[in-house]
Amino acid sequence: MTEDNLYASSTQCKTWSFGPSTLSTIRQNTNAAGIRSIKRGWKRARLEASSSNTPAATTPIPSTASTPTLAAATTPSIDPAAIPDPEPLTPEEELTLVHYYILRLVDLSDIYNFPSNVKSTACIFLSRFHLHHSVQSYHPKHLIHTVLFLATKTENHYIPLSDFCKRVPKLTPEAVLKHEFTVAGGVRWDFDIKHPLRAADGAIMELLTALGGVANGNGASDPGLQALSQRLTPNPVRRVQDTHGRMKAFLTKEALVSDVYYHYTPPQVFLGALWLADKDVAESYIEWRFGENSTMGRVAKKRKKDKRGKDRDKNGDKEEDATPETAKGPPLAPKLLSVVKSCAEMMTSARAYAEIPREELMRIDKKLHRCQNPQKFLGAGMALGAGLSDAMARKPSEDGVAAGKAEERKRKLDDDPFGGSLPGRD
Amino acid sequence: MPSLTSSAATSAAIARARENAINRGSVDADEICPVCKSSRYLNPNMRFLVNPECYHKMCESCVDRIFSQGPSQCPVVGCDKILRKQKFRKQTFEDIQVEREVDVRKRIAKTFNKRQEDFPSLKEFNDYLEEVETVTFNLINGFDLAATEAKISAFEQSNKATILQNAAKAAQEAQFIQAQREFEREQHRRARELEQEAEAEEKRDKLEHRANLLKALQADDAEFEVAKVNKLARKKSSMRKENQERRAKELEAARNAPAFQFMSNLNKPISEEPPKPYDPLDGFDETNKYFVYREKYENPWLQDALNDRAMLAGGYLVQQYCERAVFEAFSGVGCFIEDPPLSDNLSVSFDTPMTDAVAG
């Protein structure tokens, strides 16, 4: 099995890779589903409000007595039908919000000093989850802790939940675990995410080793390598090491906030980051490994084998026969180079998400708040106060019991496996 | 007394009829039991049985009467064979000699059931057959009876296992032939059904055509209508013919196809090609397309791990990490997500049951 086949058989390639148009279609569908769930929530709240308006006048004394000031302060005459449905979020606004929370997740992970693979996994989990679950149904602010905690477990960097909660004020274990199952199902139980981080390490490792060989006068037989070290003079090793550090910074921030994980494979992503970090290194590396007269490292191996035992040599000869130079096909470099460039552009454009003005975010969040909390903006909430409306959302008043229960059951069965929006969650 | 005399007369008549019947030869011998002399005339359900010990014929009631109490001597005068009721059976052949020969041959065939493939060549097989025939002849004609029997039992003793084996084989073959016969019968039945169906359909179409014609004649534009109806009928009949041909062809194909999968393998010669050496990895190739592992990699950031006892004790190998990292550096570099077939596949395979409502 070649390297490409192995990647092609992973879930990341099979279920989580899309062309740009497919991705935007999926986002639009998700947005539409979110809008529908908002509409349902408002419809339900309207029904409750209109049905509870009349009994509200004759509610037993304890409930009104508990919130006498609120009931007195509000005007009970507002007709719930007169309040218009809230304006829903657009797919772009949803994406902005998700990316904002991915940046928050990066910061959150830095509080714990988690390694970069945990951080990256958490961000990709959140991004993937919101690819199929609208922000309007699940607010990312409730999910970032859950996602980070889940990532510590999938990346084999577990810390106890109590320790996890200690670092963030007002964070409770219940809040972390509440959505864990939902999130795990939402990423389709595909916990293994192939990050470009280790791939980048591998490539740099190989490049450094090869450059070390050149310095010792071993790389004479590889023209690509010669050209590479020529281009990176005076001190190629130093330059590659510096580039490595900058590349990692791109991989742990820009790569996570953009859509590159959906559109490119890990080697392409890290090459994109390498391009951003140092264009010369990236270009000469691609030319060396995938160019016209690339040796794919075979020459180096042959020389090494000569030093080893005889049996190894035999195997090596067979290998050489199996992959003659002529059967390699056209070089990958030109195509790869254009892909890497577009990947790099995508990552650069992701920087815009870090600079979105606070007002814009506030505006979106306010919209979302109105969408998600119909009770607060409808008559029921006005008449009885927020506390009672929450109670009513969970336990409908006596005469609405049958209808409310039936509708609840129907909603759970029909709509979606995780039960649409969660009313009264905040 | 008239009644007495009449009964005496009847009994006399019966006795006379009996005498006549016996004297009249073989045809009438079937009618009267040689032991109890009762005739088929009085007992229409009478069956004659023989015992392969001595082949003396007698009626069923005699067998019941004489042998119900256990083995007994044959009632025929001069025969001193002891017979058992169990062994009595219906006579198959008219000639008792033939009956006996068949029995002997059956018995011999049971013991001497060697096949041609048991012998190196046809000549040896023929020699064997001749010897068997000699034994059979001796038994049938009573030559050297004791010596022949001794020979047979000796052979039986020494070849018990192969005899059993061959018997099992023969049973299997018989079963197979039976199955094949049934298959053929089923095929015939289906062909017949098909034919009948076609005939019925033709008849129906004819009737329908006639009714249509009459209707067309009543219409205003009779000629046009008639032409239309005729055309329709022609079209129908050609379609029917085509259909029939197709189905007949299908049936033919089914008949020619083997009834069982194993039939085509039954007498297949063993292929000469020697089996390939066993490959435990089933063609898995470890060679990589884009790179070759080196023995050692320069990785300044892993220098600590090389000497960290806590890590090494847990089985962590820097070399393995390097191999994995280098592999990942190239795993998927040649996959381009935007390629239309790939992305098409993805969009098709990607159902969205996880979204909280399916897109309308």
Automatic annotation (TrEMBL), chain A:
Compositional bias of kind Low complexity: 49-77
Keywords: Cyclin
Boundaries of every Cyclin-like domain copy: 103-185
UniProt xrefs under Gene3D superfamilies: Cyclin-like
Family annotation (Pfam families): Cyclin_C_2, Cyclin_N
Entry similarity comment: Belongs to the cyclin family. Cyclin C subfamily.
Protein name: RNA polymerase II holoenzyme cyclin-like subunit
From TrEMBL, chain B:
A Gene Ontology biological process term: regulation of transcription by RNA polymerase II
Transmembrane segments: none
Single GO MF descriptor: cyclin-dependent protein serine/threonine kinase activator activity
Coiled coil: 167-254
A Pfam family reported for this protein in Swiss-Prot or TrEMBL: zf-C3HC4_5
CDD domains: RING-HC_TFB3-like
Keywords: Coiled coil, Metal-binding, Nucleus, Zinc, Zinc-finger
Entry keyword annotation includes Coiled coil: yes
Location relative to the cell: Nucleus
One GO cellular component term noted in the UniProt record for this chain: transcription factor TFIIK complex
Keyword Zinc: yes
InterPro entries for the chain: MAT1/Tfb3, MAT1_centre, Znf_RING, Znf_RING/FYVE/PHD, Znf_RING_CS
Location of the RING-type domain: 33-76
NCBIfam families: cdk7
Protein name (Swiss-Prot/TrEMBL): RNA polymerase II transcription factor B subunit 3
Lineage, top ranks: Eukaryota, Fungi, Dikarya, Ascomycota, Pezizomycotina
Gene: TFB3
